[in-house]
Amino acid sequence: MVTRGYFETLSIPLLAGRSFDGSDRLGTPRVAVINQAAARRYYADQDPVGKRLKLGGPDADEPWHEIIGVVGSTQNRGLERPAEPEIFGLHEQLGGNQNQLFLLVRTEVEPRSLLPAVRAAVAEMDPDQPIYAIQTVDEAFASSMSSRRATTLFLTVFAVFALILAAVGIYAVVSFTVSERTQEIGLRVALGADGGRVRRLVVRQALLPVLIGAGVGLGLTVPLGAGLQRLLFQISGTDPLTLGTVAALLVGVAAVASFVPAWRASRLDPVEALRLE
């Protein structure tokens, strides 16, 4: 149940037909606007504009409404749920007594700066009308997303710590491996291996288990991605670009973590390395 200007105020696009205008009022035939989700479900192969509908069962004693337009769908049940079919009726035609109405104000200035003017305008129409639950659209959106944001922040912090631990672990393991292979590396250098070849050898051997782990992880995202889908909006739990970026990031961190001990190994003095027991 809306009034004229509702779709324009919320920037909901008109896709077909027309919106409510001055010709729609109490006493004229009732009209309705449906969203795109309703048009796809109930009029998949037809143009819904001009058709009639009514609420209730086939025998319901309700007046018919002519569909005059189709607007874009909005997600009123949360970002994780698909848009549902909606029918918009004109408040002036539907009448009845409502104990709660929402006033939507569109402005190009800071929204809360208009509160005195809005209160004065409502008081001028009805001094006894209470005004409550005042929110900007950004505040309403943030409130609806608070639990999701908390979960996302927790997962982000956990992921960052996991990435740091992985980098430290790789660095420690590669450093230990290089120290254990000091004589071998010294012998390679003594036989003519240059620093670049030594670095590539160390980094390649360090990256091999990382690449295997990344491949296993990518394989596990297919069954696990469905469980993460409810935390995502307009992106798949198995989005190739995201998974590819994350895998590349992990391999890059591993390469950086292994390069430092590889660089140290390439600077070993072969004579000193061969003397070590």
Labels describing this entry:
52% helix; alpha+beta; 2 domains; 277 residues; 8% strand; five-stranded mixed β-sheet; single chain
Query: In angstroms, what is the radius of gyration?
Result: 32 Å
Secondary structure category:
alpha+beta
Total number of strands: 5
In sequence order, what are the helices and strands, one letter per element? HEEHEEEHHHHHHHH
Q: Determine the mean pLDDT.
A: 82
Count of separate structural domains: 2
Label the overall shape.
Answer: elongated
Between the first and last Cα atoms, what is the distance in angstroms? 86 Å
- Can you give the helix content as a percent range? 40-55%
How does the major sheet shape up? 5 strands, mixed
Number of helices: 10
- Give start-end ranges of low-pLDDT stretches: none
Q: Note the beta-strand portion.
A: 5-15%
